[in-house]
Every structure is written in C-alpha cells, then in structure tokens.
Amino acid sequence: MSLLTPERYFARISRISIAKDICALGFTHVLLDVDNTVLSRQSHDVPRDVRLWLSQARNAGLSLCLVSNNWHSNVHSIADELSIPIVGKALKPLPHGFMAARGKIGARSATTLVIGDQIATDILGAHMLGMKAYLVCPLVEQDLWHTQMLRSLEHTMLGERTPEGALSAGDNAVRSEDIH
Ligand SMILES: [Mg+2]
Asked: Exposed (0-12), middle (13-18) or buried (19+): which is 16, by Cβ within 10 Å?
C-alpha cells in the first residue's frame, strides 16, 4: 500500500464505527485533523454529529489529540471547548507535530489511528511514522487556495474509490440513528 493510500475512506468522521472500525482493530489512540475533519471551514463550528462522535469515542476509552496545521488561535479555543488536547502549527506531513501529539497522549505508532481530510498532509504524515490513516471527505468544499490545488490531485489518486457511509443523493442531513 502506498504512503498516499488511506487504509479506509469515509464520507465523514461520524460514519466511522468507533466499535468496529477503531476499537475492534486494536486502536487505542486517535490523532484528529481539525479543519474540515471536525471543524467546518464554512461555519467555523463543530457539527452536532461530529461532537456526538467525539464524546462517544472518549466514552469508548479512546485517547484523542487534535493535530492541526492551522496557525490561528481559534483552533486552540475549539480544542478547549471540546476538552481535547491539541498540537497547532503542526506542519503536517512533517513528523514532529504528529510526534508531539503522540507524546501528549502517550500513544504508540502501532495502536494509533490518524483521521483527516487531506492525503498530502494527514495520510502521508501518518504513514511516514508507521501509523494507519483514515481519509474523510472534507466537511465542506470551501478550502484555502493551496488546499484546493491539492484536491484535484487527491481526486486523481482516489480514482474510482468511493467513500464508505456516503449519504444518498439529496440527503444532506445526518440522522442521529446513522451515528454508530
Ligand atoms: Mg483538514
């Protein structure tokens, strides 16, 4: 499997089954990207289904840490609000941000999963440190210009691969019963 190929690809973070797709596979620690993985770049808020998923993950005994390339202080406010530790200015895919995050929560490569919406930062960075990585579709299409440039490359790399848990066309609402 290439460094750029995610182990799994989901429609959004709340479509990942905490029991089946994380805990049952032996993962005990999860490093989470912030922008467009848990935080909408459009509304600058954490959607309700994502908040619920995060609390369910913690209730399941998972240790979480946010790892963001974001330079702005608002990511730290979000981290405080969610009560999840964070490493900001992480410069993913370089390893030091991920390593700092692992250090914060006492994580080891073999049992740590990385979840993020970008191949070139989240997936590549995870794989370079021997961690497994799940790709999620961005919460909203709105992105920074340099991120948008990478999106077309990502689409090429993913080819015909479709995200697991995609909602049917026209169904934009994520229903609570859909959250595992
Ligand atoms: Mg992101």
From this structure: buried
- What tokens does 130 get? 């021997």
Nearest to 115 by CA among 132, 99, 102, 95: 132
Question: What kind of fold does domain 8-165 have according to CATH?
Answer: Rossmann fold (3.40.50)
Separation of CA 40 and ligand 1 centre (Å): 9
108 C-alpha to center of ligand 1: Å? Answer: 22
| Domain ranges (residues) in the chain | 8-165
Query: How far away, in angstroms, is 143 Cα from ligand 1 center?
Result: 9
- d(CA 36, ligand 1 centre) in Å: 5
Residues in the chain predicted with pLDDT less than 50, given as ranges, are 170-180
| CA distances (Å), origin 63, targets 58, 88, 96, 157 | 7, 18, 19, 31
pLDDT in tens, 13-43: 999 999 999 999 999 999 999 999 999 988 8
Distance 56 CA to ligand 1 centre (A): 21
Global pTM reads 0.88
CA of 41 to the centre of ligand 1 (A): 9
- Residue 81, CB-side half-sphere exposure with 13 Å CA sphere: 12
Q: 39 CA distance to ligand 1 centroid (A)?
A: 9
